[in-house]
Predict the structure.
Amino acid sequence: MAADRAAARYIAVEGPIGVGKTALARRLASEFGARLILEQVEDNPFLRRFYEDPGKHAFQTQLFFLLERYRQQKELAAAGAPAAVVDYLFAKDGIFAGLTLLPDELDLYQQIFGLLDRQLPRPDLVIYLEARPEVLIRRLKKRDRDFERGIKPEYLERLTEAFRNFFHHYTEAPLLVVNCSDIDFVEHGDDLADLIKEIRGMRQGVQHYIPLGIR
């Protein structure tokens, strides 16, 4: 890994629900010989209740995710900066909060987030996966998690737009934006190989990767 200059020490993979973050993170960690850190989504005891009644359970759900991500990030920092691939970006946590919390809840949440965020390291590279809402819906149906069956298309549309806006203004780390509506890193090895070439050639700033071989 140390000899592989293009393989960033700490890579964060991000994007909306169903876009393929975890699948890609697993493959990148294997490719670069890095530690894999996954968000423990199904460990959140409030998540199922959130999808059933968002207004009632949004704050508890969001706070649990925030604290769990913080714990993982602190452990990563304490491990002495090992090579790592993480399937989330801590800084994006406020995207969901902004969509689901009431104004007073959001204000409290942002105060807590600010205290935690300043203590954490920044990634060497962020990979933002974007896809059309109808693609996300199709992929969610394919993986068929029971607690996700109630996700409405309107929510995914708002979430997709919120992610796009967030990363349009993101400047804290080099950013590789990947349009993956028409590529599949799980089923098509060529897609993954092409993306890894982009990662190896990534420098500073923002770079967009749009696959030429649209299927």
Summary: Residues 10-209 form a domain with the Rossmann fold fold (CATH 3.40.50.300). The mean pLDDT is 86.
